[in-house]
Amino acid sequence: MMCSRCDRCQTKKAGSCAGCGMTRCMWCTEVNQACEGCGSKMASRSESDGLKQQPKRKAGHRYGRNVHNMGETLIEEVKSVRRRVVPNSDSEPVDEKLEFEARIRGWEMFQRQQRMSALLNLGDEQLVAAIESNRKDLVMFIPQAMFPARKDEVEFGDKGWWYVPSHTCQTAACTGCRLVRNLDQFEIANGRRKARCEQCVLKPASKRRIGRTEAAKKGLVCETADPRYAGREADRSGGDIILDVGAVRKILGGMKTLTEDDMTVWLTTREMGFALTAEQDELAEAKDDLEGKLTGR
Question: Is 0.85 surpassed by the pTM of this model?
Fold first, then answer.
């Protein structure tokens, strides 16, 4: 019987060899030490699968997201399934041959209308606070019509983007680009915030008057809820977005008019965040690899 605890420190053996599966102590065994079972280097599964290792990140910075959690947040229920027409179906993986009729969280129209009305009746401060406290189960649809300049950037045949609130922030409109920005995107000079954001300050000033610095307002930082857009935090399409209270109210008002058909999409398991095989941009966590943890598929 194989002992589950280390002979030296009596700690439970949490690591395992990717080759033979023999367990090892994470405290007493060096990372590059040869496996006592098969003699091979204790390589991680990510190295053999060609996956990227998640890099070290600064505090507050994010390099990846759990697409399983994204899918569970976005999709409330799956109604039906159909076969998908794909070229060279024999060579396509099984998860690309089927797609599922998925209902977005909050799809039931009457309950959604009641919830949106209750939120819209709140004052600005209360509205932002209520959304932040319920951010895990509030999926918002941001129509492409709100951003006419991004007409060609909506993908997958959709009419907009699905987002969830991330956290509150203080916002101000830049007098240069006219976009709503987080206050930390403005430089401070002589104890006062500049009227133009950091990006606009770097550009040559136009001949027209820059304008007065606008007062800060409460806002929301929102991130994509759609696994198909995962990893695009800085992109114009599907990236993180900052909304002031006026834009939030406009979005919630539009949510009241969406039909149940508008809240239904056809997705494969991969597009719902549950790929059956390793994806090209998938990140591997070194600690999970060394402990021999398997990816949930």
Answer: no
The C-alpha torsion from 276 through 280 and 283 to 284, rounded to 10°, is 70
Give alpha helix (H) positions in 171-216: 198-201
Contact by Cβ (8 Å): 53, 46 = yes
Eight-state DSSP code of residue 112: H
- β-pair type (52-53, 283-284): parallel
CA 244, CA 221: separation in Å to the nearest integer?
A: 9
Going by the DSSP 8-state scheme, the letter that residue 41 receives in this structure is: B
Distances (CA, A) of 12 to 24, 113, 133, 292, 293: 9, 52, 39, 13, 15
Could you report the per-residue pLDDT of 69-86, keeping only the tens digit for each? Answer: 899 999 999 999 998 887
Q: Report residue 272 as tokens.
A: 């719902």
CA 192, CA 214: separation in Å to the nearest integer? Answer: 12
152 Cβ contact list (under 8 Å, min separation 6): none
16: which strand partners? 23
Q: Sign of the CA dihedral 39, 41, 44, 48?
A: negative
pLDDT, tens only, 91-142: 777 778 889 999 999 999 999 999 999 999 999 989 999 998 888 889 999 9
How far apart (Å, rounded) are the C-alpha atoms in residues 173 and 176? 9
| SS3 state at 189 | strand
CA dihedral 276, 280, 285, 290 (to 10 degrees): 70
The per-residue b/e assignment along 206-222, b for 16 or more CB within 10 angstroms, e otherwise, is eeeeeeebeeebbbbbb
Inter-axis angle of helices 245-257 and 109-120, nearest 10: 150
